[in-house]
Amino acid sequence: MATKIIYLTVGNKQEQVEFRSTDSIDEVRDTFRAAAEAGPHDVLKLYNNRGSIVNISPKLPDNTPDSKYRLEVVATYIDDLTVDKSRQEDIRNIERRLEDLEKLILVDAGTIPHEVHDMKLKIQSFNDKLEGIEHLSWLGLFKDISSGTSLQPFWNKKATAKQDEASYQHVYDRFMKMSKVDITEEVKEYLCKPTFDNWQWDDAEMLMLLRQMFIDLKFTTKFNIEMDILHNWLFEVYHHYNAIPFHNFKHCFMVTQMMYGLIQIMDLPKKLSDLEVLILLTSSICHDLDHPGYNNAYQVNAHTELALRYNDTSPLENHHCAVTFEILENSSANIFKNVPPEGNKKIREGIIRCILGTDMAKHCEILSSFKKILPDFDLQSKDHIDMLLVILVKVADISNEARPMEVSEPWLNCLLEEFFNQGDTEKMEGLPVGPFMDREKVTKPMSQIGFIEFILLPLFEALAQLFPIIETVD
Asked: Quick check: is 291 catalytic?
């Protein structure tokens, strides 16, 4: 049985670990924990000799005594992955007392001793580790992507539609830190699969994975997208998704992840233009921007501002489009600013067409039109391609039920919670209660049988006529 020996440094010590290629991920990680004298829940990072973080797994590449990995214990586990508020307050008190001491020394001596400066850095480092411990398992480092999900949706009924600015800033700061880390090949491969489990990833990590899609599809080079602008745009998109049960940033990510998987599985970069693939991915990211958690029927019946603005015609989808281009108006977040005017025009037209196509009131009409062109579908026909892009975004948008049960069931819980919230509001306001919105009448099976039979399957079957490969994907 093959044995692998890995050479590494832990602090100032030289170590080597030995494991079998048949060992599980947990067994390998326990071996590394032993080498680092770390506890069972401490968080480790492993760096190669280029300074990049690599995944601790049985697939770890061999090295030599001259090319040692560097292993670090970066944080100690805190029960329930939360930081005790009193401990945070203690740290803040220490920081304040240190600042007072610093002022006194500066007045008396005129300079600050390096010991005080070192102490401040240590306190700040410790505080960062406390605040970030639950997120230090970035990008597959300690995400056992074969271990399933906790089946615990994130939604908190008491949450407000918007997070506080401190929460947004925290996500942005972590996203920026992670942008300097290489994503492992294992995670890149997993990102293409329809079995992807979003419940294992947090918002900053998902922003990082969205960035990786742009890089792997070579959009950053083909469209000269500056990395800082891509970061700003992704964060602005994140900021414009609301903290509601279903139509939130996590839904945005999952729709985009399915689209990314379809692009790879169907080899679309060889069948469509670069601009058309860019339209697909961007439309998926932006398709539900600033969704309020109440559908078009509610908007129209309640005579909301959106319904009045868009004359009762796809008020939400029109709003999603408007927010998309409002974000792009900011030059520091305009990922298309280096695209020539004609290309910008095509991008705008394509995104609007795809997002408006997600209005389920138009579903039957769109699917019927697509089926009519299937027998003579022509990749050289602009009209046919335009229709295909709309269909692909629709497929990605409703793809949760095509995922494994452990991924899709929590999403169904989130969807029904959003529906029931709307139904409760409709009852209180004396409005007609929409289908599937009444928590006293609707059950999970009832809500899914008709949707899968009459909406999901016909749409997937139509696409499979054009791309039979999607029927073989696990």
From this structure: no
